[in-house]
Amino acid sequence: MNARIPPGQVITKGYPILHAGTVPYSLTRENWTLKLSGAIEFPQTLSFADLLAMPQKTVTTDIHCVTSWTKLDTTWVGVPFRSIADRVRPHPNAHFVVMECEQRFTTSLPIEPLMEDTVLIAHTYDNAPLPPEHGGPVRMFVPRRYFYKSAKWLRGLRFVEKDEPGFWEVRGYSNVADPWMETRYDVDDVKVIHRMRKANLFQPTD
Ligand SMILES: Nc1nc2c(c(=O)[nH]1)N[C@H]1C(S)=C(S)[C@@H](COP(=O)(O)O)O[C@H]1N2
Ligand SMILES: [Mo]
Fold first, then answer.
1. Tens digits of per-residue pLDDT, 63-88?
2. Which domain holds residue 96?
3. Is ligand 1 within 6 A of the CB of residue 5?
């Protein structure tokens, strides 16, 4: 098996567009803001200029959609999520981050995988401003999860103690969304819990 291509994925040369609802064309780099809120020391709202003033990072890697397409070697520019976390100083009880988007779309992840150095608040794709159809002016980029964790038209990051499953997650998709463990649907998450139990890593919290 090719370790680079997750199980059940097929390579596409195109770049499919996938989302619920309509593209918010009125959202531009000029009027876009990002609200940083929740369990953090320094709540604040960033403008696009604020985002550009932070250190930028370029990441070239593969993306994997749960509907089974994989696109190799995509190149993104943005601000690492980790830099945002450094700026707002999450409280110790901020275990999850809810990504809040236009049209009330949300998705969430534990804070730990978001700290990986390929995770970006992205504004540039393939050396050009991220097109509205692909989530521009700014989207989340979390390449080690299925792509529905990469929220388009990102408007807020809310740090929370307890997870809040998002739009696709409450509609039957996996909350783990790990392409290599192939957790596509909510029932697949049981596999992960089972593995963690076997490794003695699973600690029920309540
Ligand atoms: N705001 C928002 N972000 C979203 C979605 C959505 O419906 N709304 N769909 C997700 C899904 S299911 C996928 S596969 C990717 C697709 O991104 P793309 O259209 O740039 O390929 O966006 C994700 N981010
Ligand atoms: Mo998707």
1. 999 999 999 999 999 999 999 999 99
2. 10-167
3. no
CA of 149 to the centre of ligand 2 (A): 9
Q: What is the pLDDT of residue 71?
A: 97
Task: Say if 140 falls within a structural domain.
Answer: yes
Q: Is residue 183 part of a domain?
A: no
Q: Is the Cβ–Cβ distance between 168 and 134 less than 8 Å?
A: no
Q: What number does the ligand 1 atom closest to the CA of 103 have?
A: 1
CATH code: domain of residue 39: 3.90.420.10
In a domain, 5, yes or no: no
Q: Which helix (H) or strand (E) covers residue 92, if one does?
A: none
Find the mean pLDDT for residues 173-191.
94
Q: What is the DSSP string of 152-194?
A: SSEEEEEEESS----TTGGGTB-SS--TTTT--BGGGHHHHHH
Does the beta carbon of 147 lie inside 6 Å of ligand 1? yes
Domains identified in the chain, total number:
1
Distance 41 CA to ligand 2 centre (A): 33
Residues within 5 A (CB) of ion ligand 2: 18, 65-66, 148
Q: How far apart are CA 78 and CA 98, in angstroms?
A: 19
Residue 4 lies in a domain: no
